[in-house]
Design a protein that fits this description.
The complex is a heterotrimer of chains A (279), B (345) and C (245). Chain A contains seven helices and 15 strands. Chain A is an alpha/beta fold and 279 residues long. The model of chain A is unreliable at 1-5 (pLDDT under 50). The longest helix of chain B has 20 residues, at 293-312. The chains are: A alpha/beta (279), B alpha+beta (345), C alpha/beta (245). Chains in contact: A-B, A-C, B-C. Chains A and B meet through β4 and β13 of A and β4, β5, α2, α3 and β11 of B. The complex binds flavin-adenine dinucleotide, iron/sulfur cluster (5 copies) and FE2/S2 (inorganic) cluster.
């Protein structure tokens, strides 16, 4: 006999949210600020994601880019790649979308308490990490040293440029960035993100490395972190998989026996090593 | 468990009573269909085939329909959205034990964490009248998995003992139905012995079996990731999805929006989808995480033999043989692959 | 501004245009969203000002080539509807006979008055944005594509074979009934209608992206088809693919 549960009607039912601000970030990226129409807080953790709906077009999983410390609204930063994301890019302030979630486990911030945190962001991997960076900054006393490395392909692909500048100016964190290629107008670092590693020092046993970026970046950055002596269960990654339901039903996000939308999207390298299909 | 006897004549009346008195909004059962068997709405007990081998699709379709609307929305300046979940009360007649086991797995998937409103609503309104499988199809291997006989998961369970059926009463609901609509008597020890005998004989009719205890399968798979068996076997795979579409323990779906031609309203629906299809794990950037048939074939085998068991503590394959019957390339049977892996290990 | 759509027919039976017209209830709604400016079957007045051109029929004469190029120049989006324009369709059967013979078979004594070139799909002559093969065109798919274009959505077509829909419809398999079927390599989207209606699939929607042709041939062979039979089977709709290889 099935348990006589009264299921939440809301499992697939999005809450409506209003688009309160849109700003371009780069050629194909914009940041969107939303407010839930029911007036409630989203109540997320850094590293979690929502399923955003454009009715008639579809749903897509998107990481929450703002810190939970930001009240009253939340931000999603989105690259236009397909149906839903392209249609989102056409929206103006005042438009209504659907939001389900927050879903997923998020970054293990409790474990980061009093530890040093090394954040490595490749391209739009910065989107979920921005939530974590701003969260740590807003609770600065709870954490040790904060180092942020950001890399993208070219200067025009830099994201949240104003914030990158301020991060560089703060004295309570270290921020380094690099681009793969550039012209003369760029005076900063050039080279893949691992070329930033020699420029920083950290105590590996007391450090959590949080790495988000394209699959190819993972291999190199993980190798670098391991080489530097960061324990495998202190290397944290976030994975992208196809997702339809976000609630552990549709099967699309499976990696071996793991449902990324449930047990992930955040994993330690120690966990991922055991999954043959992961990286 | 209470056991009763119902004569074949009285079973016909029982089913006709259920239909006539509208004991549920829908009365469905196994009927002949397109040269095979399929669950479908019963207009009369005479349509019911209780000595069938296997149905084309499993009864899962009543809880997780092939295509189902989950939301309705209106567009425009003030969009609105509402959930859609409806269910009719239903009596399903003629469910084989392996399908009952499979429903238990679906229950675990759909009702454990994040209970699924659409599934649960339908599931909670269903009455299951099972029947023991005495004519297994040539690809079935239920005895190897312990799914040939079940002691629970049904409201009533019938076993053909010649002129009559033994009816095991699984729930109070089943008991009520019998009392209200059927003429039965208590089963004697000799009738129960006849039932055991029928079941024992049926066990001897299976043509396929695992060459190891089923408890060894997860460990075997654990050690076989790089086995050449997957590549060899999947060479002829058509990625046609037949094996996963007919499987009673496949639970995956796709979600799409459909919009009316007036462009002002629409609905979101889900439809069966499966890991053997090429695009199942493909993302917007074009990357496909299981981009060839070998990887998809292997994933399905691991789902059936290991992942579902470790995740839900229930068999991920119930040995019904539907996949093997449906597979034109004749490669889909998990038993065959597990046996090959065992031989190679 | 409502987008303007136009229909053009080439060599085929015009069954596709009739099929679209058959969509009576939806046609009214459709006309609220688009202007139809050229539709031989339905309208007498024509205009050469259009955004989306729907093409049915295969290209099989020199003058067809000039005409389709002119249409391509004008249309923002060009969509082939039906198997003939999308795949070459049954028209490509003639490619397996010498051209003169074809003319003789078709026109008998008058053959010398006609010119014909190997029949080919529109995409062999000009770039095609979307194609909707099926014989005749699938009205629902036509409507869905139109809606998607209006919404700025990429029109999706299933990339799995007909078998999926055949199973969803709970059909018994044609192979089990002693027949043969191209369902395992043919792109779904028709709801497996032919099998549901008691026949088999002859592949009118073209192949899926990654068809396992060798395996399908092996299966057809096991079910009693000779290599000759098989080639015939594949040529019906995918003839152009074979000759263009
Ligand atoms: C946990 C998670 C967090 C993400 N965070 C962000 C983010 O912050 N910013 C951002 O720009 N992108 C993010 N993505 C990627 C984003 O989800 C895809 O780009 C998006 O789904 C593409 O949808 P689409 O409808 O525009 O594309 P289409 O190609 O039209 O996709 C059609 C359907 O396929 C599925 N799909 C396609 N690609 C993906 C994918 N990569 N992941 C999951 N489902 C997919 C979706 O269900 C979608 O409805 C994230 C993905 C995941 C899994
Ligand atoms: S995998 Fe095959 S045998 Fe096992 S339950 Fe599914 S269809 Fe039946
Ligand atoms: S075998 Fe594939 S389709 Fe079936 S339940 Fe598992 S993942 Fe889903
Ligand atoms: S295993 Fe068989 S039924 Fe399954 S997808 Fe491959 S060919 Fe089709
Ligand atoms: S009848 Fe054709 S389409 Fe249907 S399952 Fe069999 S081969 Fe596939
Ligand atoms: S079943 Fe095959 S032949 Fe029939 S419409 Fe579909 S693709 Fe065409
Ligand atoms: S997204 Fe559906 S199961 Fe994870």
């Amino acid at each position: 006999m099935v348990t006589q549960l009264t299921p939440k009607a809301s499992l697939y039912l999005p809450r409506l949210a209003e688009l309160t601000r849109v700003e371009p970030l780069a050629q194909k990226e914009k940041v969107f600020e939303f407010r839930l129409s029911d007036g409630k807080e989203l109540g997320h953790k850094p590293g979690q994601f929502v399923e955003i709906s454009l009715f008639g077009i579809g749903e897509a999983p998107i990481s929450i880019s703002s810190s939970p410390t930001k009240k009253g609204s939340f931000e999603l930063a989105i690259r236009a790649t397909g149906n839903v994301t392209n249609a989102l890019h056409k929206l103006d302030k005042g438009a209504t979308v659907g939001i389900r979630g927050p879903f997923g486990n998020g970054f293990p911030i409790d474990k980061f308490k009093n530890k040093d945190v090394l954040i490595v962001a490749g391209g739009i991997g910065l989107f979920p990490l921005r939530s974590l960076i701003n969260y740590i900054r807003d609770n600065r006393a709870d954490f040790g040293n904060l180092t942020v490395l950001f890399g993208c392909r070219a200067p025009v692909e830099r994201l949240f440029c104003n914030e990158l500048c301020t991060w560089g100016e703060y004295t309570d964190m270290e921020f380094l960035e690099t681009v793969d290629t550039c012209d003369e107008s760029w005076t900063g670092n050039v080279g893949v993100i691992t070329t930033l590693f020699p420029k920083i020092t950290f105590d590996p046993s007391n450090t959590y490395a949080v790495v988000v970026g394209p699959p190819i970046m993972y291999r190199f950055v993980i190798a670098e972190c391991v080489k530097k002596g960061i324990p495998e269960d202190q290397i944290i990654l976030s994975l992208e998989r196809r997702m339809k339901c976000g609630v552990g039903k549709c099967g699309h996000c499976q990696i071996n026996n793991v449902y990324v939308c449930q047990e992930g999207p955040v994993f330690t390298y120690a966990e991922l090593k055991k999954l043959k299909e992961a990286v | 468990m209470q056991n009763k006897i119902i004569s074949k004549q009285d079973l016909v009346s029982f089913v006709n009573n259920l239909i006539k008195e509208k004991a549920a909004e829908e009365i469905v059962g196994v009927k002949a269909s397109d040269g095979k068997y399929a669950f479908g709405e019963l207009a009369n007990a005479s349509e019911l085939c209780l000595d069938y081998d296997v149905t084309l699709l499993p009864p899962k379709k009543y809880f997780l329909p092939q295509k189902e609307t989950v939301l309705k929305f209106k567009l425009g300046a003030k969009p609105s959205v509402e959930p859609v979940a409806d269910a009719k009360s239903i009596i399903i007649i003629g469910v084989h034990p392996y399908d009952i086991k499979a429903i238990e797995l679906c229950d675990a998937v759909y009702t454990s964490t994040n209970p699924d409103p659409n599934y649960l609503l339908k599931r909670n309104k269903a009455t299951i009248i099972g029947v023991d499988c005495l004519n297994p199809n040539p690809k079935a291997f239920c005895p190897s998995l312990g799914t040939a006989i079940v002691e629970s998961g049904f409201d009533l369970m019938l076993t053909d003992i010649g002129d009559s059926y033994v009816v095991a009463v699984g729930t109070g609901n089943g008991d009520k139905l019998l009392n209200k609509y059927a003429k039965t008597k208590a089963a004697t020890d000799s009738e129960l012995a006849q039932r055991d005998n029928q079941r024992r004989q049926a066990l001897g009719k299976y043509k396929v079996s695992l060459n190891m205890p089923s408890s060894e399968v997860p460990g075997l798979l654990e050690a076989s990731w790089d086995s050449p068996v997957f590549k060899e076997k999947s060479e002829t795979c058509l990625s046609c999805g037949s094996c996963v579409m007919v499987c009673p323990t496949c639970v995956c779906f796709d979600v799409q929006d459909d919009i009316a031609l007036t462009l002002d309203k629409g609905e979101r629906y889900r439809q069966w989808d499966a890991c053997m299809l090429v695009d199942f794990a493909k993302v917007a950037t074009g990357e496909n995480f299981r981009d060839d048939k070998e990887k998809r074939f292997r994933h399905r085998m691991y789902r059936k033999g290991m992942y579902l068991i470790t995740r839900y503590e229930k068999p991920g394959c119930v040995g019904c043989g539907r996949c093997a019957l449906a597979c034109l390339a004749q490669i889909a049977s998990p038993a065959e692959t597990f046996n090959l892996l065992k031989e190679a290990s | 501004m409502k987008p303007k759509i136009a229909f053009f027919d080439f060599t085929g039976c015009e069954g596709c245009q009739l099929e679209v017209l058959n969509f009576e209830t939806e046609l009214v709604d459709l006309l609220n969203l688009v202007d139809i400016v050229n539709f031989r079957e339905a309208m007498t007045e024509r205009s050469d000002d259009y955004d989306i051109a729907f093409i049915d029929g295969a290209i099989s004469t020199e003058s067809d080539i000039a005409r389709i190029k002119a249409i391509r120049d004008q249309a923002k989006i060009l969509v082939t509807i039906g198997s003939c324009s999308s795949l070459g369709g049954v028209n490509c059967l003639k490619n397996f006979y010498p051209m003169k013979e074809v003319l003789k078979i078709v026109y008998g004594k008058d053959a010398k008055y006609y010119n014909t070139i190997p029949a080919r799909p529109v995409s062999a002559v000009v770039p095609v944005d979307y194609s909707l093969p099926q014989c005749p065109v699938n009205r629902f798919e036509f409507i869905n594509l139109t809606k998607a274009l209006l919404l700025g959505k990429k029109p999706e077509r299933p990339n799995y074979p007909v078998c999926v829909e055949c199973k969803l419809a709970e059909n018994g398999c044609v192979f089990d009934k002693g027949g043969t079927c191209l369902g395992p390599v043919t792109r779904a989207g028709c709801g497996a209608i032919c099998i549901t209606n008691g026949r088999h699939c002859w592949g009118c929607r073209g192949l899926v992206d990654e068809p396992n042709i060798n395996s399908e041939k092996e299966i057809l062979k096991e079910h009693g088809l000779t290599v000759e039979d098989m080639l015939k089977k594949f040529r019906i709709y995918d003839g152009w693919l074979e000759v263009s290889k």
